[in-house]
Amino acid sequence: MKPMVWMMWGVLLLAPGVAPGAPSPAAPPASASASGPGSDQAQATNNFSFVRYRADYAVRADAGSVQTEEYEILLKTKAAVEQFSQVRLSYSEKMEALEVLAAYTLTADGQRRDVPADRIYTQESYSSASAAMYADRKVRVVVFPNLAPGTRVVYKTRRTQNTPYFPGYFGLWETFSVFTPYDDAQVTLTAPANLPMFVQQRGVQGSQAPTIRDGQAHWAWRYQRGTPMQSQNWSAAPWEFSPTIMASTYQDWAQVARAYQLKGGEAAQVTPAIQALADQVTAGIEDRRDQAAALYRWVAQNIRYVAVYLGNGGLEPNAAQSILDNHYGDCKDHVVILEALLAARGIQSSAVLIGAGGGPSLPAIPLLGRFNHAITYIPEFDLYLDSTSAYARFGQLPDGDLGAPVLLTRTATVARTPDNDSRRNGNRVEVDFRFDAQGNLSGQTVQQPSGVTEIAMRNSFARLNAQNRARVEESIMASSGFDGTGALTLLGDPQDLTRPFNYRYDVHASDYVDFSVVGGMPLPDAPGAESVRGIYATTSAPRNDAPFYCTDSLREETYRLQFPAGVPIVGIPRSQRFDNAAGEYTLDWRRDGQTVIARHRLHQRAVRGPQALCQPGDYEAFRALYQEVRRGFRGQVVYGDLGTVQASP
User: Fold this and answer.
1) Tens of pLDDT along 297-352?
2) CA 73 centroid distance within chain
3) With 50 as the cut, is the pLDDT of residue 35 above it?
4) Residue 384 pairs with which residues in a beta bridge?
5) Under a CB-based contact definition with an 8 Å cutoff, are residues 580 and 602 in contact?
6) CA–CA distances in Å: residue 376 to residues 24, 408, 415, 576, 633
7) How many Å apart are CA 609 and CA 605, to the nearest integer?
8) Are the C-beta atoms of 434 and 493 separated by less than 8 Å?
9) What are the pLDDT digits (tens) for 432-446?
10) How far apart are CA 261 and CA 265, in angstroms?
11) Measured at the alpha carbon of residue 199, what is the angle toward residues 351 and 175, in degrees to the nearest 5?
């Protein structure tokens, strides 16, 4: 299971992303569309259906191509109307041309309404608007007016790949999500018969072997699914198990690595200015690892990150000197300037292509769509670095970078980043509550965060200021259910990547409990911290029919309740132990005078290993494990004078 998403005072913090475009079945998992235990991304799209989908790929001898797509989509709900009110199509003006050949709607009674010409226009992408270096990124926008449930949205596009992303590279990746209905989908591929083409398919009609006519190889596939799979609590990325078609002119991943390195290596040239900067940043630092750490921190904190995702545009990074001059760059540029700075100090590094957040699997067919990010690898220290994560300390990686298959471009080898396991995502919470005789409560929450959690915490608290601190503190109190006041204390500077970072939250609540009567007290919520107490809700469905991600993880929560000297403690719950294939849960209760201590420990396992998906049959074990956690948090401390209790007749 993936670690819990870090919440900043009830507000979910999202990384920069790409605005949603057309829900093309051809879209590869290039933007971390995976969902793990507890997520809600595996939702059946009953809001709309593909009445008709056509995709035709015509490949030239140089691997350039023309891709023509036709969509006819039935909108069934108001949510679908909102989703398709406009379609946004991203492209690289430098490398490809995108034409909208037709765009219209069909009303429920059969009337055709063409989209006016002024409702089809071109915009700069987010990255182009924020950084001139990426001005070739464009978005073609089609606005469909007067939509209503029952309307069909119809449009046809032609994308001409004038310049292949890499010399001789063509890739096709069509995935038909099991969560979406398709009445009639067809995909065709034509290429010169002498052009190498490696094909793999799953769950579609058609053949991997082409038909040869007049020197051209032809493939054709069909797919239909009238009833989509129902929504699932947990699901891996749909490409992992849905019907799919993959084709590539590259035979293996080493070809992809060598093609990328050809341009990426040239960009990382050490100029006099790069050398001077490297010398300045590492002045007085003798240890080579410490030098690498200093250079990493400089890039992470001084090169503004502009998101241009791999597969979304040109894959050729800018020159290191240009990046230094502009002080901004995308992930590829971050890798290039860090590589140049390290090289200036005699430390070799490699660009790493990674599918951040995309799970542990790598397709057999080498397709660029599997990678959406670039990071750095230093073989001398066997260390991966992601300088686009401005709040990761040297040696830390964000959650999405862990346990992922990667491509080391310098050596043209496939590898893996460190596992996303309890050593890296484990989290401990210490909560102390003190009650006075009047039932008022004073408490304190302190976390012992893992690397993954610390990165997210830094990102959250870097935004804390005098203006929003009071609102944040009030929000924590409200979400914890306390009537009182709370105060945040930062333990370190979130911007200082040389030292650990943490925080403390102090709470004061009035009239929390009435000690004049006999009562039972469950463990109060831990203010300002995530808890596993509600984890069973993520397994509310009795079954789960999709494969899902299940990484090794650890959560520990310790609660100390100090009661007033005059309040009798009648009893505490029994300790409990539970162990199955999904993991282990232990709850230890003990009493030390007027202090009651409860320690919860939930260790979840990567059931089939860190490089494999969990299967639908594994879900039951997680549900049983989480049920034990729910039962554990139901336990109550019984307090009060039993002599005041009225006997039942």
Assistant:
1) 999 999 998 866 554 446 788 999 999 999 999 999 999 999 999 999 999 999 99
2) 28
3) no
4) 377
5) no
6) 32, 9, 13, 45, 43
7) 8
8) no
9) 999 999 999 999 999
10) 5
11) 80
Q: What is the mean pLDDT of the chain?
A: 89
User: How far is the C-alpha of 258 from the C-alpha of 414, rounded, in Å?
Assistant: 12
Hey, CA dihedral for 197, 198, 203, 209, is it positive or negative? positive
- Number of Cβ atoms within 10 Å of the Cβ of 93: 16
The distance from CA 575 to its chain's CA centroid, rounded to whole angstroms, is 36
pTM for the predicted model, two decimal places? 0.87
Sheet with 519-522: list strands edge to edge. Answer: 519-522, 636-639, 569-571
Strand partners, 509: 441, 484
pLDDT digits (tens, 9 = 90+) for 38-57: 333 445 567 999 999 999 99
Locus of tokens 């050490």:
270
Q: In Å, how far are 255, 346, 350, 456, 528 from 262, measured between CA atoms?
A: 11, 21, 12, 35, 49
Q: Is pLDDT above 60 for 285?
A: yes
Name residues whose C-beta falls within 8 Å of residue 555's C-beta, 6 or more positions apart in sequence. Answer: 426, 427, 428, 532, 600, 601, 602
Residue with tokens 């911290």: 529
- Whether residue 595 contacts residue 563, with contact meaning beta carbons closer than 8 Å, is answered with yes
Neighbouring C-alpha atoms within 13 Å toward the C-beta of 32: 18
Q: Where are the alpha helices (DSSP H) in 224-287?
A: 253-267, 272-281
Which of 132, 161, 200, 187 is CA-nearest to residue 62? 161
* Mean per-residue pLDDT, 581-592: 98
Cα dihedral sign for 627, 629, 633, 638? positive
Determine the angle formed by the axes of helices 331-344 and 288-302, rounding to 10 degrees. 150
* Residue 30 amino acid letter: A
